[in-house]
Specification:
The protein is an all-alpha fold. 77% of the residues lie in helices and 0% in strands. It contains 6 helices and no strands. The protein is elongated. The N and C termini lie far apart (53 Å). The mean pLDDT is 90.
Length: 127
C-alpha cells in the first residue's frame, strides 16, 4: 500500500481484489476437478452407460461425458471469469460485492463437489 502511494499507483478496488482471489481459487478447483476425473478415468469401466451401473433407472450416459462434463463446464466458466472481468464488473446482481462473490463461490463449490462425486463413484465402480 505504501509503495503504491510512492509510485503514484491507484490501490486496487474491492472488486479487483475479490475478482483476483475468486479467479485464483476457481482455477485451483478446476485443476483438482480435472485431476480427480483423470485419475478416476484410469480405473472406471469404460462403458456405454455408466449411469446404468450406478442407478438402473437413470438416463444413459457414457463414461467420458459422466467424468468430464463438469470439469469442462468449470473450465469454460473459469476462462469466462478470467477474460471477462470488466463484463462482470458492469453486471451486478446484488448490491453487496462480497455477497455476490460469496454466492458465486457457493455455486462454484457445488459444481466442484458434483464433479468430484462423479469421479469418486466412477472410480469405485472400477475397483
Amino acid at each position: 500500500m505504501a509503495l503504491q502511494a510512492i509510485r503514484g499507483e491507484r490501490a486496487p478496488d474491492e472488486f479487483t481484489r475479490l475478482h483476483r482471489i475468486f479467479t485464483e481459487h476457481l482455477g485451483l478447483a478446476v485443476g483438482f476437478a480435472w485431476a480427480a476425473s483423470a485419475y478416476a478415468a484410469a480405473y472406471a469401466p469404460w462403458v456405454r452407460n455408466i449411469r446404468g451401473l450406478i442407478d438402473p433407472f437413470a438416463r444413459p450416459e457414457s463414461t467420458a461425458s459422466y467424468l468430464f462434463a463438469l470439469p469442462a463446464l468449470m473450465t469454460v466458466a473459469w476462462l469466462c471469469l478470467a477474460f471477462g472481468g470488466e463484463a462482470f464488473r458492469r453486471t451486478r446482481v446484488l448490491k453487496n460485492q462480497s455477497l455476490e462473490f460469496g454466492l458465486s463461490g457457493l455455486v462454484a463449490f457445488a459444481v466442484f463437489c458434483m464433479a468430484v462425486y462423479r469421479a469418486v463413484t466412477a472410480y469405485s465402480l472400477g475397483l
